[in-house]
Amino acid sequence: MTFMKKYRAAGIWPLLLAAVFAVVSFIRYFIWAQANYAMNNLVLIGLAAGFAVNVMLFVIDSDYLIILLTVLYSIALLQLVVDSVGSFVDAYQGIVMFGDPTQVGAILILCALIGAGVLCVIISGFLKRRRPIHPA
């Protein structure tokens, strides 16, 4: 708890929330993709590498790491959307040709989870993440 007391600025809390979203998204995507034969390593790598950078941000405060984190989570999100276009088209057309229209709900939940993580990182980029250290 002393770690969070030392660094309790407003921007650290959205980063913590983004890390939670990343872990939940990674687990949910891994289970869903294995069950539906839709595994894409770029989504997994984007979420895992993003989580690693997110943990690094608790130790090293850098705006460049915030940008990198946003890019990694966005790559995971966009790759998931690109892979799922066939399912959205089939749901719109009412046919089964390119994807699985029954999976659109699960895909939208995954997109919302990853998108919420991206939004938390962007919000954290505009806030102060560390308190100034005052000599005692």
Please give a structural write-up:
- This protein has helices at 2-6, 12-35, 41-56, 63-83, 85-93, 104-125.
- The protein is mainly α and 136 residues long.
- It has one domain.
- The mean pLDDT is 89.
Portion of residues in beta strands equals: under 5%
SS class: mainly alpha
Q: Largest sheet, if any? A: none
**Total domain units:** 1
Q: Helicity range of the residues?
A: over 70%
Radius of gyration: 17 Å
Distance between the termini: 20 Å
Count of DSSP H/I helices:
6
Oligomer: single chain
Gross geometry: elongated
For the residues shown, what is the average pLDDT? 89
Order of helices and strands: HHHHHH
Unreliable sequence segments? none
- By DSSP, the count of extended strands is 0
In short:
The protein is mainly α. Helix content is 71%, strand content 0%. The two termini are 20 Å apart.
Give the secondary structure arrangement, pairings included.
Blueprint: H1 2-6, H2 12-35, H3 41-56, H4 63-83, H5 85-93, H6 104-125
